[in-house]
């Protein structure tokens, strides 16, 4: 039975790889027209393929997208590219080569709905590196308002809290699997970010290439991640554990696996940003005074909460969940008590990989899909796990919500490019007071 499952899993992975080659070939074709599902294609296929595309977003302080605004890419005072924002308020600027650039918003080009609004600064400096995408955001407000002066109104704070909770739930889906894997194996898995990316990319293939309905495509994407997680442990990590490989060596292996998968994704899908068909340009609705969220955001937040509650109940109430917590506490004692440790670890890999894939799907709905989307939030996932307490699933969820809130709220007082700074600062401060994390247990060393 195990051989049959392994063979089926390998076949599924091969099918995903073959299907993924199709959009890469189309993107490489010089005659292919830009696709609505790939907004970066309009900025230049060559730059997108090499990862030298800067994504720009223009929004009002209330969260409304601003279409029709002209943005320019400057280097040394000379314009090297220009573009106009689409219905989602986004545009892609193709940089000719790696280096330092300035992204400038032409305030005079703002549509009538945004006339009279202005950004805190109409020019943002950024650095473009090979294979690393950049995102620049302009937030418009009325002249002399709290936001334009560097402050924030109560409605803007509420909006950031709402988006922070939304982002925190995405991080939690990825962090809880990473925490369970660390708790049961002691492995610091840097390749967990690629599981997040895999969920979004396979779902995109099933819906945009195979033409399946989104919900079915998402379900198959999660199954693909679960199968990959099973193979990950069966083929790689279990043999290394049985050989007595040290945790440091295994961590290095995970870094190598992460690099391989990330650039394998780049080879298959290119460096552009894609969106799920049918889920672009959805208008926001007012859920509270001054708080706008898309219906899609509300559905994904509700789904994330339900999934996290189900996982929490499974850990506390089910026999497998209790066995998982026993293995996390003391693997040797759990084995002596009759628990099949290898089976528990493999189940954790399957569930953790599926949760990471779901995190990627939700993140793709919110921000678009790219080959390095998981890597871009990996630091925040690690921060959430460490903040909540290493190896504790409930701590990972709590840490994720704190990280998500600080990332979003910090943009009210610091540039968007430094938005991860707030989360890392709070991580350092809490660990100085409580080194084991918020819900972690102090342990004797030596």
UniProtKB/TrEMBL annotation:
GO terms for cellular component: plasma membrane. SUPFAM superfamilies: Cna protein B-type domain. Coiled coil: none annotated. It is found in: Cell membrane. Keywords: Amino-acid transport, Cell inner membrane, Cell membrane, Membrane, Signal, Transmembrane, Transmembrane helix, Transport. Residues 77-96 are annotated as: Disordered. One of its GO terms (biological process) is D-alanine transmembrane transport. InterPro entries: ABC_transp_permease, BCAA_transport_permease, Ig-like_fold. Its main location: membrane. Residues 1-21 form the signal peptide. One of its GO terms (molecular function) is L-valine transmembrane transporter activity. The keyword Acetylation does not apply. The chain crosses the membrane at residues 164-182, 212-232, 244-265, 298-316, 377-406, 418-434. It is a multi-pass membrane protein. It comes from the Bacteria. The keyword Protease does not apply. Belongs to the binding-protein-dependent transport system permease family. LivHM subfamily. This is Branched-chain amino acid ABC transporter permease.
